[in-house]
């Protein structure tokens, strides 16, 4: 048995268990955002726009990694709960090898087609070089990006969330220090920002390989067996997270095109700032949901309904409390957050600050939506999880972006996300009520 998962949890003990993953996700958000800060401040708003223009393709890579990580960790945690450690270890190894192979494919695509892909994503002549340089380097290090995501999930499943946290902090510090070194004194521009991000990926990827290769007991690398059914099941189970990232790619593209048409490059830079803020503020929900997922999977696999119900109640309490706190923080810190990227008095600052206040209500509803999706992934119900994620990040949001800007102009762009989160909040509550008897979390 995995002693870190096979125990009773109350509100605070569950929070403490998830805390390393929460902090890890916040640090991941921060070191992703660090690129934007340095690029905006020391390279220019056009370069910041370029970062967001190529993000949809980067999001696809992240989506594949998150799909394997969340779907695979649920499979591995369930097998640990069933007492089948040998199969869990073999599945871990096969999932890691699969992630490395997918990353290598993207590396080859990036080397050959960065410029054409940048054009397809909407890069103008003025932004093409920025886009190509940034995209080529990030895709070159796609294997490290995917492995980083896998190991962050499997550290939690192995009962070592603190290790994942420590490595994430190291990765973030590496990225931040190298961002400064490459961009400011070395004047490497957007290329320096991409190299700094890639270096951060490598810290966790290399450490994870060493940890699971050298570990003498517990979850570790063992000689894998080809299990196509397990891989397909893991991918299907984690498909909601893949859907989320693919949807983010499409939606980011639409945001960019709408802002280009309404406000030009300053509009793209402004929406980039607000989306960075969203990424940071929702990291709390994402980290908590990822942190508690192995506990849910373990107790579901062990058929311990009483424990599962206690964990579920604690989760709902945390989501309700944190949603109110995050919404309040978003209103109170809006001007500070925007000013970090763009100084007061600039056109980008004015556009982003106005949009941030209209965007903020989304944080009231996002927490439950993210938890509901993660819950059903942990329960191996990938279909329901995918429906929630698809509705939240694509279906409702696409509808809002197609309808609201035509009626409200720029304001319609800003309130599209709150509209989608509210609609998905109602859907999530419906699924939680409908599935309670099947999974016994109530």
Automatic annotation (TrEMBL):
It comes from the Bacteria. It comes from Intestinimonas butyriciproducens. The chain crosses the membrane at residues 12-33, 53-80, 92-114, 134-151, 163-183, 189-214, 230-255, 275-302, 314-339, 359-379, 386-407, 413-434. One of its GO terms (molecular function) is xenobiotic transmembrane transporter activity. It is a multi-pass membrane protein. InterPro entries: MATE_fam, MATE_MepA_subfamily, MdtK-like. It is found in: Cell membrane. It holds the Pfam family MatE. The lineage of its organism: Bacteria, Bacillati, Bacillota, Clostridia, Eubacteriales. Keywords: Cell membrane, Membrane, Transmembrane, Transmembrane helix, Transport. One of its GO terms (cellular component) is plasma membrane. This is Multi antimicrobial extrusion protein (Na(+)/drug antiporter).
């Amino acid at each position: 048995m995995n002693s870190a998962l096979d125990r009773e949890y109350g509100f605070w003990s569950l929070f403490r268990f998830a805390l390393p993953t929460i902090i890890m996700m916040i640090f991941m958000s921060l070191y992703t955002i660090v690129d934007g800060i340095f690029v905006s401040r020391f390279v220019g708003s056009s370069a910041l726009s370029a970062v967001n223009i190529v993000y949809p393709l980067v999001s696809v890579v992240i989506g594949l990694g998150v799909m394997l990580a969340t779907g695979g960790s649920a499979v591995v945690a369930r097998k640990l709960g069933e007492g089948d450690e040998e199969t869990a270890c073999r599945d871990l190894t096969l999932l890691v090898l699969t992630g490395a192979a997918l990353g290598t494919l993207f590396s080859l695509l990036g080397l050959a087609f960065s410029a054409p892909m940048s054009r397809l994503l909407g890069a103008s002549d003025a932004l093409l070089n920025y886009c190509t340089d940034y995209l080529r380097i990030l895709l070159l290090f796609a294997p490290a990006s995917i492995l980083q995501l896998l190991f962050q999930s499997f550290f939690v499943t192995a009962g070592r969330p603190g290790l994942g946290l420590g490595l994430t902090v190291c990765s973030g510090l590496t990225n931040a220090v190298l961002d400064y070194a490459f961009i400011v004194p070395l004047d490497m521009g957007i290329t320096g920002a991409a190299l700094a991000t890639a270096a951060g990926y490598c810290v966790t990827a290399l450490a994870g390989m060493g940890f699971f290769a050298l570990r003498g007991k517990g979850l570790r690398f063992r000689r894998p067996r080809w299990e196509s059914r397990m891989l397909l099941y893991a991918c299907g189970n984690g498909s909601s997270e893949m859907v989320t990232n693919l949807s983010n790619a499409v939606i980011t593209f639409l945001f960019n095109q709408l802002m280009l048409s309404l406000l030009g490059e300053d509009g793209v830079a402004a929406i980039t700032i607000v989306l960075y803020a969203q990424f940071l503020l929702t990291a709390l929900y994402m980290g908590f949901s990822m942190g508690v997922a192995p506990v849910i999977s373990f107790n579901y696999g062990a058929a311990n309904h009483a424990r599962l119900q206690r964990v579920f109640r604690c989760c709902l309490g945390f989501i309700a409390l944190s949603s109110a706190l995050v919404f309040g923080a978003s209103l109170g810190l809006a001007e500070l957050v925007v000013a970090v990227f763009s100084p007061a008095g600039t056109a980008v600052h004015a556009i982003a600050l106005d949009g941030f206040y209209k965007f903020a209500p989304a944080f009231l509803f996002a927490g439950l939506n993210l938890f509901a999706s993660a819950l059903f992934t942990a329960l191996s119900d990938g279909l329901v999880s995918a429906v929630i994620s698809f509705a939240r990040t694509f279906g409702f949001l696409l509808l809002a972006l197609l309808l609201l800007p035509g009626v409200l102009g720029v304001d319609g762009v800003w309130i599209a996300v709150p509209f989608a989160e509210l609609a998905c909040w109602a859907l999530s509550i419906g699924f939680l009520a409908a599935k309670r008897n099947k999974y016994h979390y109530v």
